[in-house]
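FAQ
Q: What does a multi-component entry look like?
A: The components come first, one per line:
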Amino acid sequence: MKISFKKSRVITTVASAALVATAVIGIPSVAQAADPQCATASYVTQCAGAGADGAPYLFIAAANFNGTVFIWSHGIRPAINIPATLAPAGPYTITNAAEPGPLAASGDLSVVNALVAAGYGVAGSGFSRQSLNVKEALAANVELIATFKKKFPTTKKVIAWGNSLGAMHSQKLVETNPELVDGLVLACPAANPNDGLVNYFGDALYGFKAFFDPTIKVGGYSTDPVTRQTEQLANIGKVLTVLGKLQAGLSSGAWPDTSSPAGKALEAAGIPSRSALLLVGSMAGIPTRSKHVDGTSGPAGAAETYPLAVAPAVAILENMGTVGVAGSLLLADGELLAGGKVFDNSKTDYAARVASDRDIYSFAFSGNSAVDAMIGALAATPREKADAAAVAKIPSFVGLKGTVAKPTVMIVGESDEYAPASGAQWLIDSYGDQFAAAKDAAIAAAKSSRNYQAPVNKLVTLWQKTAPKYSKFTAAGSPDLSAAAGAGTGHCLYTSAQYIAAAKMAAGAVSTGKFPNQGPITTAAKKVGLSYDKKFRVPTYKSLA
Amino acid sequence: MTRTNRRKLALTSAVLAVAAMTASSLPAQAASDPGLTSTTIKLGITVPLTGIASPGYNKIPGAMKAYFDYVNANGGVNGRKITLVIKDDQYIPTTAVAKANELILKDKVFALVGTLGTASTKAISASTQLAKRGIPSLFVNTGFSGFADPKGYPTTFSILPSYQMEAKVMGKFLKEKYADKKLALIYQDDDFGRDALAGFKQAGITFGTYIPYASGSQSLPATGAGWISKLKASGAEVTVLFGVSSASTAALANAYAAQFKTQWVLGSVGGDATTIAATNKAYVPLLYGAKGFSFAPAPTDATDEYIKLFQSIYATAQPTQTFDNNVVAGMSNAFVAVQALKAAGSDLTRAGLIKTIEAKGASFANPFLTPLGYSATSHVGATGYWIGTYDPTGALKPDGGKYTVYTTDSGNGPVVESTYKRPAMPAKGLPN
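Then the predicted structure of the entire assembly, as tokens:
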């Protein structure tokens, strides 16, 4: 035993070093054949290949492979090229490069290296289609698992993991092919029961259209691919332009010159544009804390009035950059997949949507009367009516059942603007119902067997919470956008240590069949700046509330 | 192998021994809800201790603690002593959410108590999902009528009468006293003011001038001056201000500066002399002659047995602080909380406490001069007001030299003179 232990350590050390080197020299070239091309150096085997649909994949395992492989699903990538003129959304060129683990796309192989060095296998596909690609990702992942197992027949356990849309792919994989997956890690999951995300993006864009630029598209993109792409890029440009103008008018309250007649009337009535911007955020449920705006701090001289009057709108402004761009990309792609309009707000009661925020952000809204006026102004912009057949198809490309049947670790940022924490909360609540039902069933069974078998917890959520205060201000009194983003804000801003901790927690549960008690989880989470608290809650999607 | 087994055996024995020791040292009844032991109850409050809204309000938690300490020193509640964890929210709703989360998740309080302000209370309720988690929010310091509705806020209980009730009582007063005058209304443009508008409508009062303001904007210099310009232009002879005391300060100071005279009628939360003095002591006399509303005995009324007791407790606990409305509010809040905890019994749970207040809350001993309205269908606290006039020191004195209390509901019920006789205070003001 002592000898093998030492050997294992040697392999681990060498393998780790080899991986770092590999990252520099590059991976084997992608093959088009069914079998992957593999190369082994310093005890580490790396394989690259392409799936049946041409999706490139990559997998790695060392000589000390312990039989557990992590199948990574990367997050969303646009399906269209975005020019540099649309910065910061562009430049972007469509890529389906394989991604073996988190952070790897940015050249950070620390998570991949750590897992391989610890004896795990890692694998990931680039998927044959980008944007909303649940169908393609599902097929690619099923195929990749088989390919990995063929190459490494000692594989015993498979842990699916992914971030953002990739987390949805991982969850979808276990919901459709439970026999293939033993555990999950869902990071910043775009967990969505049906049309929660469609409404999130649609409501935000509708608000922008109604107030700030009537030519902004919420839906109804052309079916011709070239025209549709042109429309998408134009929409992104319009959203970014409006955001720039809103930023310029934050203090003065001036509205963009592209504002709708209803918006201009609100401006004439003395309602600042920042109040309307906040209303749009409230309509959609966009977090009122952002990377650089904590909502509780103010610059010198306005420490109390700024958080009350301005900060919530500034946070929406910062978050809307992501929401507006993503909405323009995803709604168009959703329509393409569904064959018609998918966003429908024809029956949405926006007054009800903002009701709970009215008092909380009263000063920033400019009071109740202003909220009433702004809600009233929405009447001037026709509502969006979706195609019923298209809506029925939404679950096929973004819908989940929310069943948690295998040990699952979630990492969730409290104020994620792209995949709102509301999605994770939906999954938590879904599992809460499942667990309660399992408990009831166990109690019922115990009445006859006189042997109570308590259900085992299968879901651990590690929260990346936002601190009460993290904003920095420039000498001019504006939020300092060059400062580090606050924890729990932004989309999937996790450290390698956080990913590794979640992965090892899932692997432990897969190995033993259950998660440890609260204490060890809490300690492990705390070590990497995460928080484990089963009582912590965030509001669910506004459209589902 | 042998060594391993011996070690395992030793470990098992040690574990068993510890388990046995722990079991024998555990209280007979281990509490299941957070914040409880067999000897303690942990409550939490978030209030503005600093910031623009802090003057006056920052005395509330100290007053509460003074009464809790008094109860603790006399045996506690059902054998448990109360600890109060206090957080500063600066009257910023998002900060209040963060602080409430700390109280719930970090400090693990049994219940929130005395949360202050409509916006903060709403923000906490929505963001921390109190109802879904079954966390009691006891006796919140806001009169928004929504908090009295158990359908919307099943775990929240008000302590104040609703603002709607207040506007109805005020409406009756305006009709009787100032029927022939030009009326104006300055109101906070949120649910606070919305309640007021509903109450005035029910009372059949129409104002010649309506001046809404966004909560917080009263701190901007131009806001108060703008109000006075509008009032002057309208020729308002009687001006009702339904807002917080910092709004009253802005109105009174700007009216004085502009030499504008009107009969001020201030809502119950808008006439606190301590808050006004915090801006400028010279503004306090500007309250003189203004009409005001209250449901508790005046803090200067040493003939009232509750006030007498509270003065005595507070003088010991906070000897350098002035005894004022805020202190009465805080101690009254703590008093009712103790009554509720006592009534809930030794087998205390969050759910049990809520049920107890609904079932027995209307009969809790309390200092107020109106009945309490707690029931399964209403979570409202006090249910009426007496009317008074501010003296030059900023003290509200009852008109006619005695408390004439008017009671009503938050619906279409009439405003009637109350026949309520407050029961005698429990011996030494302790839970009985």
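Q: Is there any commentary attached?
A: Sometimes. For this entry: The first helix of chain A runs from residue 2 to 25.
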